[in-house]
Amino acid sequence: MPRKIAALMLILAVPAAAAGQKRALTLDEAVSLGLRNSPGLHASQMAYEAAAARAMEAAADRLPSLRFSGGYTRLSEVPPFVVSLPLPPPYPSQFEVSPVFFDNVSLRLSVQQPLFTGFRLQAGREAALFQQRSAGEDKDQDKADFVLNVKSAYWGLVRAGRVTAVVDENLAQIDSHLKDVRALFAQGLVTKSEVLRVEVQRANAEVMRLEAESSIDVALTRLVSLIGLPRGTDIEPTTPPESVASAAFSGTEIAPGSAEDEPVIIESALSSRPDLKSADFRIGAAEAGVKAARAGWYPQVYFSGNYSYLRPNPRLMPAQGKFYGSWDLSVSLSLDVWNWRRTKHQADQAEARLAQARDARKLLEDQAVLEITQGRLGVVKAGKRVRVSAGAVGLAEENLRTTRDRFRQGMALNSDVLDAEVALLQARLNRTRAAIDFALAEARLEKAMGR
Question: What are the two backbone dihedrals, phi and then psi, of residue 330, each rounded to the nearest 5 degrees?
């Protein structure tokens, strides 16, 4: 019995230990997980498949249709059709012209082929194909938006972790300085107020650390939800922002390109963006919709044929109580002579939808140009911030080191050391934020360029 209890405790302890472990995750792995698990992207895929099925349905409308039908009918009893003739005996005076059959069975095979529909079916097929392509580009756009969201969540988690680490370093420095100040206070070299000032700064740093830990929880919850991992999963991001901002950290100048190259860059980006491609396909679908709406001004011509296997077959005279097959072929033409201008109103609606699609395309293009321009300038600005903040950290570290040495020698005030610590904390936070901002700017620019 004790062995069973020990085994049970071991089994229960394994998940608890596993739950406490962090899952190392690179940026590419996070994106890959999200792409596999996202219900939103699955919905986009289903929308594309529905549009593809609609395109196949529209293609089938132009092909011959074959239909089978059958039925059984029981008729009420009525007297047969009898003709009376004034004939002398021995000739019969009454003749049964058509017998009555109360059980009727019908089997029919029908084929129908549209010959001319005023280009309605052709336009419907074109519209469905454009809508399918538009749905495919919408799917790619949803994917690009989702990838950017995952990257933002990932870098948000990295930022929160880096801020926490910086605050921890600051706490360690304050503790070291507090130890020195307390030692000086014990020797009577500083007042109690100087010790309290350091303790207040430490308390403020502790509050900042709690806020940083809270931001880690929020960022972690967002990332876990996006990429479809179980709630409560602890993630350790392993892709450093320096890998993205390596050029900026090395001091390499990041230029947005010359003014002469800008139109070429923007034009290339516009041709690659899935949202603009989708808008172009929607315009094509709207143009096909105008063609379909105008089909009411043309005649509709159909070919149809039937093979009937009936008992009794009404084409046999007199009727016979047996199955008999017959067939028929026909060509029908119909034309709306007057329908109170319904066709014109339908065409006006279609033309209005076409104009709306073109306006939406123009608005999207203007927004895309602005997004591309802001993205390129954002990368340049973020790169400059990375270089400046990296240099500021070195200066702040040297400033704190020299100020502490001077403080220990009695040549600097306690407030000077506290100010130097705050300056170093701010410089390190700025460097962390600059690196994350550069990584996010790169991700936004990639999306804006349609990559």
Answer: -155, 155
